[in-house]
Write a structure and sequence with these properties.
Pfam families: Porin_O_P. InterPro entries: Porin_dom_sf (IPR023614), Porin_O/P (IPR010870). Keywords: Signal. This is Phosphate-selective porin O and P. With about 400 residues, this protein is an alpha+beta fold. The chain has two domains: about 55 residues; about 325 residues, Porin (Beta Barrel). The chain has five helices and 16 strands. Strands 1-2-3-4-5-6-7-8-9-10-11-12-13-14-15-16 form a 16-stranded antiparallel β-barrel. A hairpin with a 2-residue loop joins strand 4 and strand 5. The longest helix is centred in the N-terminal third of the chain and has 32 residues.
Length: about 400
């Protein structure tokens, strides 16, 4: 409507002199009318183009909004067993430009499961996942500040729920990276507040990938959106090496110190009065990924904090893209060597597939069977050696 109005006004302004002259003189030859019409049409076109260009410039300056919803059905025989429809994730993402070479990201999780963050009815609340700015000084030097996802392992940094081959991550990601080390069962989604320097080094001749990338992160080592409770900071160092385009090796090491703190929904690992309990964790892995074919990935991880935490994890995944289909198998192992009777001590086999209806819609079906250690079976699973899980989930992107 605005463009029509502007075109109409422009046409009036242009044609006004001609109309005034027509009142005092006879019309000229037919060619004169044609020329006037041509000039008017040309001006209308120019005005339309200018308005369209202005609108496009305005839209280009606005933050980009995106996100996804993952929802479906989950069935498990673990413990007493459950069958439930679930809304696993609803992510709202805003990406924008602060200034030249400086970008920002805001990501909100609408179905977070962080212990102690639910309301009085046990319903899940909103949680800020990411809130950071990134300054790109060069390919080799970037600076990120705010709350960001830690570069520990492939699954927490290089992969998102939107691109994961299975419905759920491995326990290397869930328990070693996405669990606050201060507390035994509080999820922090692998996020922390701090500053990170990172970049790509040694580009190959075609410059379509880099042989070497690095990350150096300094963070609180506490819960997301929360100040630190001691003077010590978490230090994370990471190296990624690509000998060829589709093959990556990654090694990550994290050191931190933690103070005793009672967190709603979690059990503190650090005894009362202790302010500097040291924690170490590392994850190493290899990943071959052909987007149109074979996908192989494996990782091993270890986390230890004195005599309070000592855990090991490993997984190996194989998938293959065949048109819109992506069949997948995964072996997943985890051992909690301090709490040997929990159901975190298992060997799990998973099989399933992803079907891509389009770039914005996919459906995933997974079947997993967990085999528990003797202590976990006897004390936490009612004597049953294993449990089954079926997941059928759809993901809608926008």
């Amino acid at each position: 409507m605005k463009r029509v109005f502007m075109s109409f006004v422009s046409a009036l302004l242009i044609s006004a002199p001609a109309l005034a002259a027509d009142e005092n003189a006879n019309m000229g030859p037919a060619e004169t009318n044609t020329a006037t019409e041509t000039a008017t049409t040309s001006t209308e076109k120019t005005t339309d183009e200018e308005n369209t260009s202005a609108l496009e410039k305005l839209i280009s300056k606005l933050p980009k909004l995106s996100g996804y919803l993952q929802t479906g059905w989950n069935y498990t025989t673990q413990g007493k067993g459950t069958s439930s429809f679930q809304a696993k994730r609803l992510r709202l993402i805003m990406d924008g430009q602060v200034m030249e070479n400086v970008t920002f990201r805001l990501q909100i999780e609408a179905f977070n499961g962080i212990g102690g963050s639910r309301n009085g009815n046990g319903q899940k609340n909103l949680q800020v996942m990411d809130a950071f700015a990134t300054a790109k000084l060069s390919d080799a030097l970037n600076i990120r500040a705010g709350q960001y996802y830690l570069p520990l392992g492939f699954e927490n940094y290089n992969i998102s729920p939107a691109t994961l081959e299975t419905v759920d991550f491995s326990n290397i990601c869930y328990r070693m990276v996405c669990r606050n080390p201060v507390s035994y069962n509080v999820v922090d989604y692998g996020r922390d507040l701090g500053v990170m320097v990172f970049g790509n080094l040694l580009p190959n001749a075609e410059k379509d990938f880099n042989y070497l990338s690095y990350y150096l992160s300094l963070t609180n080592g506490n819960m997301p959106m929360k100040d630190d409770n001691n003077k010590s900071k978490d230090i994370i160092t990471v190296l990624e090496f690509r000998p060829i385009k589709n093959l990556m090796f990654k090694g990550a090491y994290n050191w931190g110190e933690y103070a005793s703190e009672n967190i709603a929904g979690g059990n503190s690992l650090v005894p009362a009065g202790v302010k500097h309990q040291e924690m170490n964790r590392y994850i190493v892995g290899a990943w071959y990924n052909d987007p149109n074919g074979l996908n192989l990935r494996t990782e091993y991880g270890h986390i230890q904090a004195g005599s309070y935490v000592k855990e090991d994890g490993f997984y190996a995944l194989a998938a293959y893209t065949i048109g819109n289909w992506v069949p997948v198998v995964r072996y997943d192992m985890y051992r909690d060597k301090v709490n040997k009777a929990t159901l975190n001590n298992y060997d799990r086999i998973l099989g399933g597939f992803t079907y891509m209806f389009s770039k914005k819609l996919k459906i995933q079906a997974n079947y997993g069977y967990s085999m528990y250690t003797k202590e976990a079976k006897d004390f936490s699973n009612g004597g049953k050696k294993g449990s089954s899980q079926i997941q059928i989930m759809a993901m809608y992107k926008f």
